[in-house]
Write a structure and sequence with these properties.
The complex is a heterotrimer.
Chain A: E1 4-11, H1 14-26, E2 34-37, H2 44-47, H3 56-81, H4 94-120, E3 129-131, H5 133-136, E4 140-147, H6 151-161, E5 165-167, E6 170-172
Chain B: H1 3-14, H2 16-22, H3 31-43, H4 47-74, H5 89-113, H6 123-143, H7 170-190, H8 193-202, H9 206-215, H10 223-256, H11 268-294, H12 298-301, H13 304-333, H14 338-348, H15 351-367, H16 371-375, H17 377-401, H18 419-442, H19 448-457, E1 458-463, E2 466-471
Antiparallel strand pairs in B: 1-2
Chain C: E1 13-18, H1 27-35, H2 43-50, E2 56-62, E3 69-75, E4 94-97, E5 102-105, H3 115-119, E6 126-127, E7 154-155, H4 161-174, H5 186-190, E8 196-200, H6 207-212, E9 217-218, E10 230-233, H7 241-244
Parallel strand pairs in C: 1-10
Antiparallel strand pairs in C: 1-8, 2-3, 4-5, 6-7, 9-10
Classes of the chains: A alpha+beta, B mainly alpha, C alpha+beta.
Chain lengths: 173, 475, 245
């Protein structure tokens, strides 16, 4: 879209970045159009940004249930299919069931959380995205898209807040 | 007084300077600089490195896989087991390496949960210990089978044999538990690695860059990505702790679930777990000392303060081990059955028993209380190496020596490890070392983002005349 | 009739060993070896504890010279009702035959974990450490009814299951019921003093059933709860005293 411009401002301090975000909000840029890229996790409390609800715990609970069901299947359906008696033990023995249920449920929990991270982040994502190598090196990149007419004023505002560079973002290939 | 101790006592006088020298968290450098240091360490692959890798690869190939091939080809009898000692050094190695693997989870998960900030630089080094320890351990359940080539019969999948494996068998619990732990620890190694892989991608060129680019999954560091990653890492940290405890307990139940006198005790689960933590954390100390001495720039990240903390941890765990050990064997002596006394008498007549006690209790108790010993790398290395020797002998005593004596005196026996078992033991050690050395140059060993996070959350306050280290939670 | 049988008319195999009659001659060991194609391990390996004996004579010396006395205990797989060896096999290579109350070892299922052997309190199981053969001229006398085991496989006394099956098939073909004494294990057949008696514990008239309730009867390591099927008869003082003192 010709009206929208993606700009990136690099800051070396968290305080500056937060101030810059405030200025962007004052200028009318919506939170949805602002993205902050950093080499270190900065929580939404620090940045003053809306909280991101992660569904990873939901994936984890689903995984736990899937693991639980798999373990019940292994412990109860397989001896029911092919009953073999050993050692005076009952065919469906509860203590070994508990052990395996625990292990497989935890495996499900963790495997699904891992998968959840991949899914939620839309990984693997090798399409070109705005990025800055400086961000991995410790700077904080505030990426925003603004209408063309606001570009210049915002550039000045960013530089005033202490941005080391403002301009078109690099592309991660 | 040593310089370290002098430094500490003068820390209050000299304030921030001393704190910075002592604590990594108070000696912040820019992330760019730290990234550069880590990359430099990764790219340091000279002739010595390649020679070491080649040597380890050859030794692994010959000592481990060659010997294993010989075992399959000639027959299992080349190993030293007999009746009644059916399990030999292979199972001992198995338990030993599972024990080593507990270190990583202890450091990266338990210390993370307890917010022990000193863990930050070496979580990945420790987690690699777990993953590679498990890979090394995972060879042995297959290797020790009389018919190794049929190991896949133990995998539960629908098949035309019309047989599922027996889930009431402790070996099946082993298989499931170790598979769970291996997969989960690999994922737990990988998740915090993603931002560092992205960093490596950015600092690489050519085909290396392509590989890291694919491994980094397109990580950029946006808030969304960090939020999801942090949630998952927290879930993993909490979830992998019970798995860690349960895995070694299940391995202990390989022995405790039998009817053998000396094995069938309820204390084995916790006893093995604490033994695993002891040998594992000692192994972490050993590996860190080696890494610090051989890799570039590691002296900035891994400091005497870390060895100090690890040394104190080892001392406490060693006391815990002594507590469980005494519980196990003292009660066998007091009011135990006749066969139990026979077993104890036999064990105490063996020098391995006494080496175990000296190395696991005597040496830590006598040395690790001293700050100087804890903070001097070569001294800590010696102590932890001896602890690992002691822990290896503990497994030998329990797994190999106890079956010598049983309830029927006519059927007592003995066992001597054969050359092929010793070769495979050394080969496993070479395999572990090979995996670790190769990986240490493929992925960044220090999680720079975690160190940076820690450095950001630490600050120095003045309370009265003293400069005090203060930590805040960033979340 | 608790674990010995739950109804009459079924075959619940059991054994009685009369220790007052056993003189330790070892005929049972030899017969078992020939019957079950037991391999020759060799002197060195045997000395190291790798002998492949499904039944062994435990010999305990008592007393000081010149009043030494030996006690002999023939021990084979006790075919436990609650066998510790069975639940620990991950591949179900050993399981319990509920109808016949004996412990079955499936050779071609065994992967060689040796967990069962570690768990057996009677140390009754033996493992094929190498591909053993039999010494000359025994390698011409293989029993066709018994498989020969390759290396990496666990084996143990089977109560001569091949003889049980042969007798059962003959009885079915011939249309008669198996009588006590129709089935003989190799060891019981070979014993010169008739110290080993094999039979059907479910048949109240059989010798084993009657002898198992004798006042002299006990089972080895009974307090472990393994419910063994082999009953040992031992009087207060046994046999050899008159010969040596």
């Amino acid at each position: 879209m010709s009206e929208v411009n993606i700009q990136q401002a690099l800051f070396s301090e968290v305080g500056q970045a937060v101030e810059a975000v405030d200025k962007l909000r004052e200028a009318g840029i919506n939170d949805d159009h602002i993205e902050i890229i950093s080499g270190m996790p900065l929580s939404h409390h620090i940045l003053g940004r809306p909280e991101i609800k992660s569904r990873v715990p939901l994936f984890a609970m689903t995984g736990f249930v899937v693991g639980f069901i798999t373990s019940i299947a292994l412990n109860y359906f397989t001896p029911a299919l092919y009953p073999i008696y050993v050692g005076g033990m009952p065919l469906f023995a509860i203590p070994p069931t508990i052990i395996l249920t625990f292990e497989i449920s935890m495996l499900g929990l963790m495997a699904f959380s891992f998968f959840g991270v991949i899914w939620e982040n839309r990984f693997p994502d090798y399409r070109p995205h705005e990025y800055s190598v400086e961000a991995t090196n410790g700077k904080i990149a505030v990426v925003y898209d603004c209408p063309e007419d606001q570009r210049a004023t915002l550039e000045v505002a960013m530089t005033a807040t202490g941005a080391s560079s403002v301009g078109k973002p690099e592309v991660l290939r | 007084m040593t310089t370290d101790v002098q430094m500490m006592s003068k820390a209050h006088d000299r304030g921030e300077e001393a704190l910075a020298q002592e604590h990594l968290m108070h000696d912040p450098r820019s992330q760019e600089e730290m990234n550069g240091m880590v990359m430099e360490a990764m790219q340091d692959m000279g002739v010595k490195y390649y020679a070491l890798v080649a040597f380890l690869a050859v030794m692994t190939g010959v000592l481990l896989f060659g010997a294993w091939g010989l075992l399959i080809f000639k027959g299992y009898g080349l190993a030293g087991m007999n009746r009644p000692v059916y399990w030999g050094l292979f199972i001992t190695n198995f338990v030993f390496w599972i024990g080593i693997s507990h270190a990583g989870t202890f450091v990266s998960a338990i210390l993370r949960v307890f917010k022990a900030e000193y863990r930050r630089p070496f979580t990945r080094a420790a987690e690699m210990l777990t993953t590679f320890g498990l890979m090394t351990a995972g060879i042995f359940p297959i290797l020790h089978l009389g018919r190794s080539w049929r190991f896949y019969w133990m995998i539960p999948y629908p098949n035309q044999r019309m047989l599922w494996p027996n889930f009431r068998a402790p070996i099946m619990w082993d298989m499931i538990a170790i598979t769970t732990y291996l997969l989960c620890s690999t994922m737990y190694l990988y998740l915090p690695l993603i931002p560092d892989l992205a960093m490596t991608r950015d600092h690489s060129t050519g085909w290396k860059r392509t590989i890291y680019k694919y491994l980094a999954l397109g990580w950029r560091g946006t808030e969304r990505q960090w939020a999801h990653l942090q949630r998952a890492i927290n879930i993993f940290a909490f979830a992998i702790i019970p798995v860690m405890f349960s895995v070694h307990t299940i391995v202990a139940w390989d022995f405790a679930a039998t009817r053998m006198v000396g094995w069938h005790t309820t204390i084995f689960g916790p006893f093995f777990v604490i033994g695993a933590i002891l040998s594992g954390v000692s192994a972490v100390a050993m590996v860190l000392i080696i890494v610090r001495a051989t890799m570039k720039n590691m002296k900035y990240f891994i400091r005497p303060e870390h060895f100090d903390a690890i040394g104190k941890l080892i001392l406490i765990v060693s006391m815990g081990w002594a507590y469980f050990f005494y519980n196990e064997f003292f009660l066998e002596w007091y009011g135990g059955e006749a066969t139990g006394h026979v077993v104890l008498d036999f064990l105490m007549s063996s020098p391995i028993w006494w080496i175990m006690i000296i190395c696991n209790m005597g040496i830590p108790f006598m040395t690790l209380w001293s700050k100087k010993v804890r903070r001097t790398p070569w001294m800590l290395f010696t102590v932890t190496a001896l602890i690992n020797v002691g822990m290896y002998f503990e497994r030998v005593v329990i797994i190999n020596w106890i079956p010598f004596r049983n309830r029927m005196p006519f059927d007592w026996g003995d066992y001597m490890p054969s050359p092929i078992e010793i070769s495979i033991t050394l080969g496993a050690l070479c395999l572990f070392a090979l995996l670790y050395v190769v990986m240490s140059r493929l992925i960044p060993l220090i999680p720079v983002w975690e160190v940076k996070e820690g450095q950001t959350s630490h600050s120095v306050r003045k309370v009265g005349k003293a400069s005090i280290s203060s930590v805040a939670e960033l979340e | 009739m608790d674990e010995k049988s739950n109804k009459t008319g079924e075959d619940k195999w059991g054994m009685v060993v009369d220790l007052d009659l056993c003189n330790g001659c070892g005929a049972c060991v030899t017969a078992c070896g020939i019957e079950n194609n037991l391999p020759t391990v060799g002197e060195d390996e045997s000395a190291y504890g790798r002998g492949m004996h499904w039944i062994r004579i435990q010999r305990y010396w008592e007393g000081e010279y010149p009043h030494i006395r030996a006690r002999y205990y023939p021990v084979m797989c006790q075919q436990c009702g609650a066998a510790p060896c069975e639940p620990v096999c991950p591949v179900y290579a050993t399981y319990h035959s509920e109808p016949e109350a004996i412990n079955i070892q499936v050779y071609n299922r065994c992967v060689g974990t040796r967990f069962c052997a570690q768990n057996c309190p009677y140390v009754a199981r033996v493992f094929n450490w190498f591909d053993y053969t039999q010494a000359e001229p025994m390698n011409n006398f293989f029993n066709p009814d018994v498989t020969r085991r390759t290396r990496g496989i666990m084996e143990k006394c089977t109560f001569c299951l091949q003889r049980i099956r042969r007798a059962q098939e003959d009885a079915e073909q011939g249309g008669y019921e198996l009588a006590d004494g129709d089935v003989q294990t190799a060891c019981s057949q070979a014993c010169p003093t008739r110290a080993i008696i094999f039979g059907n514990l479910a048949d109240p008239e059989s010798r084993v059933a009657r002898l198992s309730e004798s006042a002299r009867a006990y089972r080895m390591l009974e307090d472990l709860g393994t419910k063994p099927k082999v009953f040992y008869l031992k009087g207060s003082e046994t046999g050899l005293r008159g010969l040596t003192s």
